[in-house]
Amino acid sequence: MQPMASPAGLVALAICFLVLVVGPDGAYGSSRGSFGQNNGAAAAPVVNGICATSVTIHGYKCEEHEVITEDGYILNMQRIPEGRVSSGGNKKQPILIQHGVLVDGMTWLLNSPQQNLPMILADNGFDVWIANTRGTRFCRQHVSLDPVHPEFWDWSWDELVSYDLPAVFGFVFNHTGQKIHYIGHSLGTLIGLASFSEGHQADKLKSAAFLSPIAYLSHMKTALGVLAARAFVGEITTIFGIAEFNPKGPEASAFLKALCDYPGVDCYDLVSAVTGKNCCLNASTVDLFLQNEPQSTSTKNMVHLAQTVRDGVIKKYDYGRPDYNLMRYGEPMPPAYNISNIARDLPIFISYGGQDALSDVQDVQLLLDHLKFHDVNKLSIQYIKDYAHADFIMGINAKDVVYNQVVQFFKNQQ
Ligand SMILES: *[C@@H]1O[C@H](CO)[C@@H](O)[C@H](O)[C@H]1NC(C)=O
Ligand SMILES: *[C@@H]1O[C@H](CO)[C@@H](O)[C@H](O)[C@H]1NC(C)=O
Ligand SMILES: *[C@@H]1O[C@H](CO)[C@@H](O)[C@H](O)[C@H]1NC(C)=O
């Protein structure tokens, strides 16, 4: 395999993930425009929360909640407690929905109520909780830190595993007194898999659905590899520092532009090659997406993802020096997450797409290989030939293709 100069490559990847939804019509310019024009927009608080802008307008009840992580981040959650037509008094099962990197929970809600996953679940009698990770627009508060300071951004997806997930699981469990069905997309699958492999949430978890799973990342497709190989390994820290990674900020825009201006790099091709060609997106939904996303994460999180690509294994953040790792972990190398340790009787549903260049089919096979001793009747796998990464959250036909299966899977666990 071609070695990837990973941090820069992953930044390119992430940015391209955002560009990807523009789709095959070559509307690259419009997304670039949005990167350039909204400097700082990710930091600007929006007056109305996700409930008001995206849920109650469709006639659903929606509650805004605040959850504090053990390391002090104040996370925002939405709850859709029931469907539009309340289906009576029996106790509803809670479902926790976790989005991917550089977006927030609103991405689940951009399609119509008949098409989007949270509302379909609510209409099917579930109690739906939408998580938002630290750093995204409604999760920029902390008990003592401020997002203008680098310390606020000193975390990677390890902390999403160690702090964000336990906080939201604990919160939902306390509110409902019931075990929780988990749904993750993209990075939301990786942190779920990592967490469950360490036995966290075992007492609170009923089953898990992983859409477009990201665990192993070493087969991500070639255009990125070519691009990344040309980029400098240290580039990301020189440009961004250990701080906020704001994809709408001037540095990220300049970085993307530099990559796109690289001789021989065609950003139109890059988008398809890196992210896969989404079959089934609605142009209006894509516009809405670009009004709301992308959103910030930490540079350290991007570097950690890049390490996952580079190393072909799922490990904790590598400080790059044995002495630093020793200080942090008590070992010179970062400890690995062992996916095979996930409880073999945990009901799991995995859905992956044949066109998904981020969750590459070969990498999904590697993941499935690590689950080969899982109880056969507890593992459901769905392969969708035409689907790429964003179809799983915004596909106009996702209800028929994926969500009905997810609903059935959860209903089978009752
Ligand atoms: C859940 O309730 C327990 C017991 O009251 C409490 O110790 C814990 O902090 C609560 N967790 C959350 C996340 O609210
Ligand atoms: C696309 O989105 C628009 C605006 O929400 C909606 O009116 C239209 O019905 C959608 N098209 C499809 C095919 O879902
Ligand atoms: C991972 O976990 C599996 C199942 O518990 C075990 O058989 C295997 O040896 C572990 N792998 C490593 C590298 O520790």
UniProtKB/TrEMBL annotation:
Keywords assigned by UniProt, alphabetized: Hydrolase, Lipid degradation, Lipid metabolism, Signal
Name by which UniProt lists this protein: Lipase
Family named by the database record: Belongs to the AB hydrolase superfamily. Lipase family.
Coiled coil: none
Active site per UniProt: 186 (nucleophile), 356 (charge relay system), 389 (charge relay system)
Lineage: Eukaryota, Viridiplantae, Streptophyta, Embryophyta, Tracheophyta
SUPFAM superfamilies associated with the record: alpha/beta-Hydrolases
Domain annotation Partial AB-hydrolase lipase: ranges: 55-111
Signal peptide, first to last residue: 1-29
Membrane-spanning ranges: none
Gene3D superfamilies registered for this protein in UniProt: alpha/beta hydrolase
PANTHER family: LYSOSOMAL ACID LIPASE-RELATED (PTHR11005)
GO BP, one annotated term: lipid catabolic process
Gene Ontology MF, one: hydrolase activity, acting on ester bonds
